[in-house]
Specification:
The complex is a heterodimer of chains A (174) and B (336).
Chain A (H helix, E strand, L loop, with lengths): L17 E7 L2 E7 L5 H8 L18 E4 L2 E4 L12 E3 L12 H8 L9 H14 L5 H7 L10 H19 L1
Parallel strand pairs in A: 1-5
Antiparallel strand pairs in A: 1-2, 3-4, 3-5
Helix pairs in contact in A: 2-5
Chain B lengths: L3 H4 L5 E4 L3 H10 L3 E4 L5 H6 L7 E4 L8 E4 L2 E5 L4 H6 L1 H6 L1 H8 L4 H6 L2 H5 L6 H4 L41 H7 L3 E5 L4 E5 L22 E8 L6 E7 L10 E10 L2 E10 L6 E2 L1 H7 L6 H11 L11 H18 L4
Parallel strand pairs in B: 1-3, 2-3
Antiparallel strand pairs in B: 4-5, 5-8, 6-7, 6-8, 9-10, 10-11, 11-12
The chains are: A alpha+beta (174), B alpha+beta (336).
Chain lengths: 174, 336
């Protein structure tokens, strides 16, 4: 990409690559990217952050949920070139093995998964839901987690885990 | 980088638009160009090979984002996200039908990405349109319609033609046609405003033409008249699962009721028609009539009058009527 924000027209079947700068989990990452590449593929295949999962790859399952500038979005429907200068947080950016995020801890305590494939997306989505103030009741949690499908059907325990964290946050605020 | 999803997409030139004038001029000059906003439809359909622009004009940095509440009018920038519009205090207080239509649509993740103008321009969920191995007059004019004698349980019963029965999928557009919203459009050499009720085209014999936009034209904002103080409004969506699903039938309704009589009434239908469907015949029955179950039933009959169901979606006639009655009962505060 030149300074005008325009890729060079591709030559036959060699698409032009663009330099894209992202902040991922607090670290500035630069990549030269084919404009067709999704944020999901950059995270998994370029940056080695395989916590974010590719489920349906068509915006239907929520397994690829990440935070972009603090908002939960689907990385499979996001072209990476459109993320220039944006701040991305993945499951790897929420906690470490020794210091889990409270939502990660609650998912373990409540056994809120079975196969685990949807879990990173569930947890990132739940972190956003709590920040949005959408955990006022089980019904509200269910509605605002509906973009994250769990084919093992761990929903009751996922709701319980989120309810636990929301309760802790509520008590902490008192 | 290896990824089926990535490699399947046809190569394109990516342009990050710096201003509206440049975006529109670039698009007007190239019939193979497309705009990219939230991408939730555009990127999805590019992966499936349904859309294959050679130039993709990223408009997400243009200054078309935000909600301005003025006297009697809410002006919504085209790039305002669905979540942002739903969260706006004036929308929450004065336009509940709009807020409900937004929050009953898609998922929080998609609502954080999808823009208001993109929502109005979203493509149908018809499986025949979305599968490039199938015949579809909307995708490939003249190729036929796989849905007519195929699986069409989700398809339209109003505004159809012998060439297309694809349903328009937007919930927001249903609320906005009920409210007489206006779409502001910028072209290469003119600016214009079109009522949303005149924006969409029923399929007729050109299903590939979905609206009045001409090449290069860009929606810059949507203007929504505020409902008069005291108006009740709401959106009812009937679907196969409780959340994160498209409508089988939906209804937007707004009523002004004094002393049990409806002084004004707006009704529009979703999930049932090829375009967001204003039900003016139903409104004529409601206006000046008592807000009773009998009136609502008569309005529902009028709303579905002229429906042309097929074998697989005949259930939508009765479902549509019941949806209208329930929506009106809900808005009027009667047991539905």
């Amino acid at each position: 990409m030149d300074g005008s924000g325009r890729s060079v027209r591709w030559d036959a079947d060699v698409p032009a690559e663009l330099l894209v700068r992202l902040r991922v989990n607090g670290v500035l990452r630069e990549s030269r990217l084919d404009p067709r590449v999704t944020l999901l593929d950059v995270l998994r295949e370029r940056l080695g952050l395989t916590g974010t999962k590719k489920g349906c790859d068509q915006g239907a399952c929520g397994a690829c949920t990440v935070l972009a500038d603090g908002k939960r979005v689907l990385s499979c429907l996001t072209l990476a070139v459109t993320c220039e200068g944006r701040d991305v947080v993945t499951i790897e950016g929420l906690g470490t093995e020794g210091a889990l995020h409270p939502v990660q801890q609650a998912f373990i305590a409540r056994d809120a998964f079975q196969c685990g494939f949807c879990t990173p997306g569930q947890i990132v989505s739940a972190v956003a839901l709590l920040a949005e103030g959408r955990a006022g009741s089980d019904a509200e949690i269910r509605e605002f987690m509906s973009g994250n499908i769990c084919r093992c059907g761990a929903y009751p325990n996922i709701v319980a885990a989120i309810r636990d964290v929301a309760g802790d946050l509520g008590r902490a605020a008192v | 980088m290896t990824s089926q999803g990535t490699l399947a997409v046809r190569p394109f030139e990516y342009i990050r638009a710096a201003d509206v004038r440049q975006a529109v001029a670039t698009a007007a000059a190239d019939p193979a160009a497309a705009f990219l906003a939230g991408g939730t439809t555009q990127v999805d359909l590019m992966k499936d090979g349904v859309l294959g622009p050679q130039v993709l004009i990223d408009i997400t940095n243009l200054p078309l984002r935000g909600v301005i509440a003025g006297r009697g009018l809410v002006s919504v920038g085209a790039l305002t996200t669905m979540e942002e519009l739903a969260a706006h205090p004036v929308v929450a207080e004065r336009l509940p039908v709009v807020r409900q239509s937004l929050l009953l649509a898609a998922s929080p993740q998609l609502r954080n990405m999808a823009t208001v103008a993109g929502n109005l321009l979203q493509r149908t969920r018809c499986r025949y349109y979305r599968d490039v191995s199938c015949a579809c007059n909307k995708r490939v004019p003249g190729s036929g319609c796989g849905a007519l004698n195929g699986h069409h349980r989700m398809h339209a019963i109003l505004g159809t033609s012998e060439h297309c029965i694809a349903t328009h999928a937007s919930d927001l557009a249903v609320a906005l046609v009920a409210l007489d919203a206006m779409v502001r459009i910028r072209g290469a050499d003119r600016e214009r405003a079109v009522p949303l009720t005149e924006f969409y085209r029923t399929p007729g014999d050109t299903p590939s033409v979905e609206n009045v936009l001409e090449r290069g034209e860009l929606i810059t904002s949507v203007e929504v008249p505020l409902l008069p103080e005291g108006t009740r409004s709401g959106y009812l969506k009937v679907r196969d699962r409780a959340s994160y699903e498209f409508a089988l039938a939906s209804a937007a309704a707004a009523l002004v009721i004094t002393d049990g009589v409806m002084r004004d009434a707006r009704v529009a239908l979703g999930g049932l028609a090829t375009v967001p469907w204003r039900a003016r015949a139903a409104e004529d029955i409601l206006r000046g009539a008592p807000a009773t179950p009998e009136t609502f039933a008569a309005a529902a009959e009028a709303a579905l009058d002229g429906a042309s169901p097929r074998a697989g979606n005949a259930y939508k006639v009765e479902l549509g009527k019941r949806t209208v009655v329930r929506a009106l009962s809900m808005v009027a505060g009667l047991p539905g």
